[in-house]
Design brief:
This protein has helices at about 25, 45-60, 75-90, 105-110, 145-160, 190-200; strands spanning about 10-15, 20, 30-35, 65-70, 95-100, 120-125, 130-140, 180, 205, 210-215. The chain is of the alpha+beta class.
Length: about 220
Amino acid sequence: MVVIGEKFPEVEVNTTHGRIKLPDYFTEKGRWFMLFSHPADFTPVCTTEFYALQKRVDQFRELGVEPIGLSLDQVFSHLKWAEWIKENLGEEITFPIIADDMGDLAKELGMIPSGATATARAVFIVDDKGVIRAIVYYPAEVGRDWDEILRLVNALKISTEKGVALPHKWPNNELIGDRAIVPPAASVEDIKAREEAKAKGEIECYDWWFCHKKLD
């Protein structure tokens, strides 16, 4: 099972958009991607997830992140289900869905819970270098909150670009609002530099180890 910070495995997969290589299919275009698994096509909770994700797909793409689904169903099942969603719910699924019918990628990524025959609701956020930046798991019986995943993706992008950390429920944190947390001091010199930055009004601190600032 892979972990955060590792490279996403190099694989070739069958999808509703044809056969593609991961992570190259996205990283060669300078894009991040969000690989998510669902237990099965033509199931109620999964249908609500796909409908809701398609409603938000432009928001993911505006952040430079491309969604791609996965289950152990075959391509024809994915295609027929996507057709059903379009005809009955009015949303055309525009992102690819992997047909991992032998379960090879799902097993490598640890998507199949112990004793189960289908994937959990796993989410892997992979950056434009092919590095896994976040992993989230939901059980089969509880659907995901795509707004929280969007928040996670946005926070990861800002953290990467600005070199900061983001607090609980950012940008609506109870203590510091939409401000960013300055990375922890690692030396006496860092503490001194923080005191100087605080004196200049560049940062605010509860203590030397808990400082925050406005995002540029």
